[in-house]
Write a structure and sequence with these properties.
By secondary structure, the chain is of the alpha+beta class. The strands form two sheets. It has a five-stranded antiparallel sheet. A three-stranded antiparallel sheet has the order 1-7-8, with no helix packed on it. It has helices spanning 46-59, 79-84, 127-139, and strands at residues 2-7, 15-21, 29-31, 39-41, 64-69, 88-95, 99-105, 110-117. The longest helix has 14 residues, at 46-59. It contains three helices and eight strands.
Length: 144
Amino acid sequence: MELTTVKIEKPDEINFVLGQSHFIKFGLAFCESSGATLVRWTGTDNEMIELAKRNALALASGHSFILFLGAGFFPINILNTLKMVPEVCRIFCATANPVEVVVAETGQGRGILGVIDGAKTKGIEGDQDISWRKGFLRKIGYKL
C-alpha cells in the first residue's frame, strides 16, 4: 500500500466540503468507485464546477465528493442539511483553509484516510485571543 497526499487547489477565499457518500445524488463532483468510475458533476457556477471536477479527479478516491461554495457562502450554513442527506456517510472537512488529503492506494483503488486542515497549532490562547475570538464570532453573527 502506498500513502500519498493530494493538495486541494482553490483560491484562498473559497470554502469547500469534502465528504464520502454511498451513492450519487448530490454535489458538484463525485468519484464513482464501480462501473464507469468517472467523476460525475453538476452545479450552478462554472468556476466552482471546474474546481470540483479538477480536485475530484486528483483525489480519484471511490465514493468521495467535493463541493465548492462561491465567495461569501460558508459551509456552516449548509453542513447540517448536507449531513442529513441519506447518502452522505462522512464529512472529512468543511473549510477555506489550505488542505492536504491523505490518500491510500492499493491494487484495487484509492481511499481517503483523512485530511490535514490548515497549519499546526502553535500554542494556547490567552485573554486577548479569547476577546478577539468572541468579538469576531459576534461580528459575523454567531453567538458564543
